[in-house]
Amino acid sequence: MGAPKAHDWIMDLAAYVPGKATADGVKNPVKMSANESALGPSPKAVEAIKASAAGVMRYPDPASHDLIAAIAKVHGLREERILCGTGSDELLTLLIHSYAGVGDEVIFSELGFSVYPIQAQAAGATLVPVPNKDWAANVDGMLAAVTDKTKLVIVDNPNNPTGAYLPWSEVERLQKGLPEHVLLVLDAAYAECVTAGDYEAGEELVDRFENVVMTRTFSKLYALAGLRVGWMYAPDHVVDVINRWRMPFNVSNPAHDAALAAVKDQAYLDEVVSFTAEWRDWLTAELTAIGLDVVKSQTNFVLVGFPEESPFTAGECNAYLLKHGYIVRKFGVLPNHLRISVGTETQNRGLISLIRGFMNGSPDEAGQ
Ligand SMILES: *Cc1c(COP(=O)(O)O)cnc(C)c1O
Fold it and tell me: Are 155 and 166 in contact (CB under 8 A)?
């Protein structure tokens, strides 16, 4: 009979590829590849992690009650509609596996967060990628792709890796056009970064309709990526579904306490939000001045387009940055682009000076 065999569709999967974390031969590389916060978490969150150490022999609260109460208060939401998870990745995964299986279809943006196709395929579902429009989700394309077999439409808004967003009117139009049986998942991982006036993360649609879920994370501007905490806001029937089979202790004590302290420290978050928007816009202006194509971003990263002709390609720039200890993100599906996360002031300035030198064709005299 041979060795145990997994589903064929699992064997067809390629594992998630995270952003690089090391640069050969460079001791303390500057990591601008994973959209982590440049400023780190609230000092109050760090204190909470230390204080929680004494209690780690205890299982955490399976209901994450205090954290959910704090999230509800800050966002003006109903507690019973909030669920916390081991990062929003866990919640997205649970949603996909709860609603889609063999023979079902899952719609998402062709350029988008790679967790959706990985998990949809792991569930045995059929992947329906839709080409983006102006780098954001393509509402008409997604609506045209819906069939009787469609179970989920998942939209990262703003989009990762492009940084573009859909205005609220477009999200509403998408929801309105979907049949009632299709679950619309709004992944608002970068909601805290958005400064555009016509953006909403999605709470309001969740409260108005039975087929909309919003997911959020503490990994980006709250800067707790290493602890793994996310949350979702969903109709009661969806919360009930996920509660039936999520891991009972999915948020550890330190993660719970740190996220609680972080969400209560909105003054700190406000500082991070202004810093991020300011440097994102600065990076955009500098890279544009260098002559590169920058996608207009509402996130804590920018997607930068390079010329196709050597020696100024994205691949060559990436290698050059790595050699100088700067790690950015290159995607196989975007051969002419690099995704660069907002860093500290020193890191941002160092990066621009390197890229300017590289594009001037005198790279070896540039930067450090
Ligand atoms: C970073 C990111 C997440 C967050 O994942 P966590 O599991 O909460 O760390 C979710 N969606 C998108 C689009 C992201 O870029």
Answer: yes
260's tokens? 């609680």
Query: Which stretches within the chain are classed as H helix?
Result: 8-11, 43-52, 65-75, 87-99, 115-122, 139-145, 168-177, 203-208, 236-245, 253-264, 266-290, 314-323, 345-359
Give CA–CA dist 260/255, Å, rounded.
8
Q: Atom of ligand 1 at shortest distance to CA of 217?
A: 8
> 88-104: per-residue pLDDT in tens?
999 999 999 999 999 99
Q: What are the residues whose beta carbons fall under 8 Å from the beta carbon of 274, sequence distance 6 or more?
A: none
For residue 11, how far is its CA from the centre of ligand 1 (angstroms)? 24
The residue type of 59 is Y
CA distance 344 to 313: 25
On whether the CB atoms of residues 56 and 364 are closer than 8 A, the answer is no
Residues near 72 by beta carbon (within 8 Å), at least 6 away in sequence: 78, 79, 82
Q: How many Cα atoms within 13 Å fall on the side-chain side of residue 146?
A: 21
List, in sequence order, every residue forming a beta bridge with 155; answer none if it has no partner: 186
Which band of pLDDT confidence, cut at 50, 70 and 90, is reported for residue 24? confident
In order of their start, the domains of the chain are 8-40+267-365 (3.90.1150.10), 43-265 (3.40.640.10)
Q: What are the DSSP calls for 23-92, one per residue?
A: -TT-SS-EE-SS---SS-S-HHHHHHHHHHGGGTTSPPPTT-HHHHHHHHHHHT--GGGEEEESHHHHHH
> Cβ(339)–Cβ(333) under 8 Å?
no
**Is the predicted pLDDT of residue 364 greater than 80, yes or no?**
no
121-135 tens-digit pLDDT: 999 999 999 999 999
Check residue 182 and give its pLDDT: 98
Distance, in Å, from the CA atom of 258 to the CA atom of 52, rounded to the nearest integer, reads 9
* Ligand 1 closest atom vs CA 219: 9
The binding-site residues of ligand 1, defined as CB within 6 angstroms of any ligand atom, are 35, 87-89, 113, 156, 160, 187, 189, 217, 219-220, 225, 230
Provide the residue count of the chain: 368
